[in-house]
Amino acid sequence: MKRIKLQMVRDDLNDIPGYELPEGYRFRMFEAGDEKIWADIETRVDEFETETKALERFRREFGPYIDEMGHRCLFIENPEGEAIGTTTAWYGDLEGDGNIRGRIHWVGIVPEYQGRGLSKPLLSQVMNILAEFHESAYLTSQTTSWQAVNMYLNFGFRPVRLDDDYEEAWSLLEEKLGRIIGY
């Protein structure tokens, strides 16, 4: 499938679907020194070529706000206590209009743990964290992450038109997912 960037919004953070982690797994929040763990996970899910590049991005994006990470960055730990997934309940101005929304940011579960029922609990938990700080939320993704996009749709996110290839992206996704998205 052609890779096209896309954006989605959820106009409110009410009625967030609830999902529990499988037995033995647990959530924990970011702690001082977890930058390397974040970088390892994001590198293992192919967001970065190297852990060094991931750390550079972390420091650039979150470094000035490191104190907020303890309230906003979430990890999933496996039964052995190893962090194997992460996402951040961040914030930003998606449309450049001064409207600051919550942002689902840097979602990742390492490949060997994908397909184990962890994504929905992770999304549910991070949305509940966002609801403590914000009234609405957005995320960015791409057509090649069609399984994640399908989950986001099921969690109440909808497409938002910001790019010229908006219609192509959502047409491809409708075909791939076999569902009407109503973009």
Automatic annotation (TrEMBL):
Domain N-acetyltransferase: 25-179
Entry superkingdom: Bacteria
InterPro entries, per the entry: Acyl_CoA_acyltransferase, GNAT_dom
Keyword annotations: Ribonucleoprotein, Ribosomal protein
GO CC entries: ribosome
Residue intervals passing through the bilayer: none
Matching PROSITE patterns: GNAT (PS51186)
An example molecular function term from Gene Ontology annotations: acyltransferase activity, transferring groups other than amino-acyl groups
Protein name per Swiss-Prot or TrEMBL: Ribosomal protein S18 acetylase RimI
